[in-house]
Specification:
Elements (H helix, E strand, L loop, with lengths): L1 H32 L10 H13 L16 E5 L4 E7 L4 E6 L2 E7 L8 E7 L3 E2 L3 H7 L12 E10 L10 E12 L2 E14 L2 E11 L18 E12 L3
Antiparallel strand pairs: 1-4, 1-11, 2-3, 2-11, 3-6, 4-5, 5-7, 7-8, 8-9, 9-10, 10-11
Length: about 240
């Protein structure tokens, strides 16, 4: 009886240990392959504010007028801005954030074809919520941050610009230009929403590229497949340069 008891005890220990290994393995897999980043929408505070203001101003809505907005001048990308990559895998969509973005937009309302804009993203500001994955993405196989620490965008043309835009309104435009990642440059078009709010501009924009466009292969492992498409999302806040 004692020997049977010892054998059963060993089996129980083995089963419990196996379950613990499986559970730990799952959580490790989930951590290293799962998503840990949420896109910070620069319009979200504006939407909340708009709802509150509309509620407060119901009685006086007939007297409400929207002022014209002075767009002309140089606008600089602020530190509240970020760029995101969204990549679909067989597990879920992974979001990668780059928190250091700089650049400017020279706006000319009457002659939009003369507008100039540029943006620079610090590749080393990458954050996917997993440091080991970040090192892998900015390493030799993918973004190669050591020889190419920056990705850049240079504006070439703008479509759907209107001189009748008003402060507090969301406007839809297309921004086309050169996107350079590593030493490869491709022409892309960002579908863009712009919101003017007091003395700041808020801009959201999306475009889709592929791993192959920039000399990379989309990752595949035994446990995880990754799509070739990469959605690039800009969430920018710009302040007017008064100098």
């Amino acid at each position: 009886m004692k020997e049977i008891f010892i054998m059963n005890k060993r089996k129980l220990i083995f089963i419990v240990a196996s379950l613990l290994i499986l559970i730990c393995g799952y959580y490790i897999f989930d951590y290293y392959t799962g998503n840990h980043i949420i896109i910070d929408d620069v319009f979200k505070e504006s939407a909340t504010k708009d709802v509150k203001e509309q509620s407060d101003d119901v009685q006086s809505s007939e007297n409400f007028t929207v002022e014209s907005f002075d767009w002309d001048g140089e606008w600089e990308i602020s530190e509240d801005s970020a760029v995101y990559l969204s990549i679909k895998t067989s597990k879920e969509e992974i979001i990668i954030q780059f928190s250091e973005v700089s650049g400017s937009w020279e706006i000319n309302q009457t002659e939009p074809n003369l507008m100039e804009a540029n943006a620079i993203v610090n590749i080393n500001s990458i954050d996917s919520g997993n440091g080991q994955r970040d090192s892998h993405i900015k390493g030799d196989r993918f973004l190669q941050a050591e020889p190419f620490p920056e990705a850049t965008f240079q504006l070439h043309s703008i479509e759907n610009w209107s001189n009748e835009w008003q402060s507090g309104q969301t406007n839809f435009i297309l921004l086309t230009g050169d996107l350079t990642i590593k030493d490869i440059t491709k022409t892309v078009t960002f579908e863009t929403e712009v919101l003017s709010e007091n003395d700041i501009l808020k801009l959201k924009a999306d475009t889709t590229v592929t791993f192959n466009d920039y000399g990379m292969n989309n990752p595949h492992t035994v446990l995880l497949d990754t799509e070739n498409d990469v959605l690039i999302t800009l969430q920018l806040v710009l302040n007017k340069n008064e100098m």
